[in-house]
Amino acid sequence: MIPPQARRILLTAAALVGFLVLLGATYQGVATALERRRFPHPGRLIDIGDRQLHIHCTGTGTPVVVLEAPAAGLSAAWGWVQPAVSMTTRVCSYDRAGLGWSELGTAELAAADVPAHLHALLEGADESGPFVMAGHGLGAAFAAMYAARFREDVAALVLIDAPVPAPGRDEGGRVRLMRASPWLARVGILRVTDMLSERTDGLPAGSAGVLETFLNRPDHLTQSARELAQWNETVQGAAPPSGDGLPIVRIDATGDNRVSFLTNADTAAAVSAAITKTVEQVRGSATGQP
To answer: For the whole model, what pTM was predicted?
Structure first.
């Protein structure tokens, strides 16, 4: 039997924890509501049948570059790259289902669904290929999957920090944090501590603000954790087409961290230059020029 004094201490502690959780959840809700008004989606929401996906296209010209964001990322993760490449051609970034401004939908998602979703999105947005597909981290795996499934729609692949299968590898602290992050976000802990949002440091202000917002949103983080849980299956099924002349450019930029963004301006500039060079080579091939 618990002594009365100890019982009072436990009840007081429980009441205090409950109050702090309620306070944190209220703070999270108010901040999220304010951010929804502060950061409306910059692109368009396209209906692909069972959900709407967000796509943001800038610039003019062909071939169109399609950007696949890394794990836990969204269109805003390309804050340095998209404006730079759009000076040369049209560039489209988008948010995978359940991430950013895109709807999750009601059907359960699998990694293999991503190429079909993107194909429907590009058709619905009236964007014409063949495309230069560029992906970063997990996005590189999705870009390779798209090229394997819709080869006729792809003129070239740019794979930035393309992941390789590593079933026995320790996931690391960042991935473990991502798994717990939806719960930490709901009670405001992530927002107060900046545990995830600090990873946006270095991006242009507008892009950093958007990415920081979604790295504090439970819905975005829940789907991010699901994608990370399917990491090995995604990577193992992401072999790009080989032996058919598809140009593939591989870039090492941010290392092999599963959750990382192109925040360094110099690194992002090198990535932008490689994508632009690939665009120019595709144009040269189309016109017969070297």
So the answer is: 0.86
